[in-house]
């Protein structure tokens, strides 16, 4: 672990009216009572939009409607042992373990517990006040238990794995009633390549609030650990670019290299022309920095990359192919995947267009997809917004954050990642028209051509909202709109 972590103070410096404990209970403050009333209504089946912080309400919706977590649960279930942790995450867990042990010594005087989990919410270690640890163990807040949201509802560890940034869950904000006398704050550590959570660190305190400085301490602490993840990403990219350059001379036609997350690291000129990557000079030269990589606008490609990575694990000579719509409106093109392996781990993929080699990819059956949502959940200010798909004109991605442009203004989607939002909205007539934009075809008002032949969609004729259409999507879009 590199970098310096500041001292940790988890107890409020002095009592305030909001944090003051009456009868020694977290749940007797006026704000906690308001949340408890909202929890009773929501747990009883009502849909609510106010009275609870939006990130907590979004979590409650996941727990009730998607995960169906039993709110009367009082003990966390045991962790699943079917999936072993990746060995190459050992450095991260070692750094987090050291951080957790140091923090545990500092919080011991305040009656708190520090826990570290893996990316699936399985507790790997716990440190802190012995009496607080014994109380935590009554709820199985201990190693080899599962505190993911789908197992144990809204809590600091599990909810931090669902969202980016620090998360605080206090008193009745917990989904399970048995945990209403705990206050906790957690943050996830994420893979800079895939965006997936790798681990989390959490601080829990029984029957007492946490200092407002705890979230900022967590942010600083995990930044030190994330330096290790960044270094690994740069090292892996160097390996992938080396293999790409070796194979480039033998490649006939479009050829590119991707990282573990399906982002393009390097591509030859044929690929640049095919995918419209002109101007992406870092891709042609080789994008070592994660922020310089490019996500191809090829439907289904991320799923194929994940499949290929799983199939190639432990089989360095493996190859497989899938037929994907590289150019909208045209027949699917075969794409062959060959793994780039380092120390027995897949660190990237070489992709050949127009080549059909190895194991064929079979897409999951529609029956395996979960039920479609009746509403889309957004967040604005201190409120959760429930949207009918028809209210949304288009969605715009700002890296991993997605903004929904609606009659009620610009609202942040509770679901992160444009591809995830696309899965939710495609059944309602939404289509990708650009790598950053998803539009409701029913809400397209006008089409306009730019001076260089570019195509723009006007989604609202009153405000002249312009959505750019990439050249590769234009023919299919015209066909769909009948123009």
Automatic annotation (TrEMBL):
Family annotation (Gene3D superfamilies): 3.30.450.40, LytTr DNA-binding domain (2.40.50.1020)
GO molecular function, one term: DNA binding
Record has DNA-binding as a keyword: yes
Membrane-crossing residue ranges in chain numbering: none
Keyword Coiled coil in annotation: no
Coiled coil residues, start to end: none
Entry keyword set: DNA-binding
Ranges for domain HTH LytTR-type: 376-483
Protein name: DNA-binding protein
Taxonomic classification: Bacteria, Bacillati, Actinomycetota, Actinomycetes, Pseudonocardiales
